[in-house]
Amino acid sequence: KMKEIEESIDKETVTLDGERVYLHLNIGGRLDITQVSRKRPDGIGLLRTELIYMDAVEFPNEEKQKKIYENIAREFEESQPNKPIVIRTLDIGADKKLSYYKMVDEENPSLGCRGMRLTLADKNLFKNQIKGILRAATHHNIKMMYPMITNLKEIIEAKDLVEECKKELLIEGKEFKENIEVGMMVEVPSNVMLADIFADYVDFFSIGTNDLTQYILATDRYSPIAEKLYDCYDPAVIRAINMVSSAGLRKNKKVSVCGEMAGENQAVIALLSLGIRDLSMAPAYIPKVRNLIRKIELSELKEIKIKLLKSKDSQEVKNILNEYLEIIE
Ligand code: PEP
Ligand code: MG
């Protein structure tokens, strides 16, 4: 098995029927370049910027952010030229805290001021990061993405702030990318129900199944109870992914999945059957997933999709996926 995975590392990421699937990296604040070049990812699908802020002793300013993003991009491009890098704006709150920033005390932090809610409440914080990203994107294939969006108003507010940043950069005579692509993470059930509407306001979706599972099932992903209830194979989550995938298809917007499940064999089968062609995962999973994709016959997944969407519980979902896995492996 290891040998098989090792051998497929230099091959194309295509299914048996020749459909290309794109494998991207999830990375924290730093890039382990030795990891990257051998794995030949199609891009960075999720650059979590929290670690950059957590490593600092105060909010990194615009200039510092620009440098950090440029350094990561340069390093990445050394082995993977021209491939896209998606920078996610700061997603602190709930489980992620900063030593130099006092957060409001809340009864339910994961339902409270986190992600975009926090950055939109502190416009300077948001604008510093946006300006850093816009400037770093001048000479690199950088896109940006918002975490934890609840409603359209937030997207519109963010859009206005980005325009404000561009105007300021223009006046300051700094180079930046005018037409940067902007996407949103799908992490809140409202995003799923209104996916066709959100699709008109963003360039792409990336489904954050870690949080989406927690919010669909109303189960804290870090709580002890999670062992019993928190399950990304719950058919409610599967249907949610399907809804977003179909909305994306209808609206011609790319939908990727960047939650942990994107690196799991069973989930890869499920996601491909639901029409997902873009996965983003920790670097270590890339070779294994590439090897698996090369054994999948997409036409055989039609039946699986129908079965998944009729499943009653996560056990049924997993049985369907495991059965197919056993056949192809
Ligand atoms: C997610 O929620 O699925 C996700 C990728 O974001 P994070 O794990 O950083 O919350
Ligand atoms: Mg998340």
UniProtKB/TrEMBL annotation:
Active site: 258 (proton donor)
Domain PEP-utilising enzyme C-terminal positions: 5-297
Enzyme Commission number, as recorded: 2.7.3.9
Subcellular location, record wording: Cytoplasm
Main localisation: cytoplasm
Top-rank taxon: Bacteria
BP GO terms, sorted: phosphoenolpyruvate-dependent sugar phosphotransferase system
Catalytic function, reaction form: L-histidyl-[protein] + phosphoenolpyruvate = N(pros)-phospho-L-histidyl-[protein] + pyruvate
Binding sites annotated in the UniProt record for Mg(2+): 187, 211
Cofactor: Mg(2+)
Annotated positions binding phosphoenolpyruvate: 48, 88, 210-211, 221
Record's keyword terms, sorted: Coiled coil, Cytoplasm, Kinase, Magnesium, Metal-binding, Phosphotransferase system, Sugar transport, Transferase, Transport
Family: Belongs to the PEP-utilizing enzyme family.
Protein name per its UniProtKB record: Phosphoenolpyruvate-protein phosphotransferase
Organism: Cetobacterium somerae ATCC BAA-474
Positions spanned in the full protein: 252 to 580 of 583
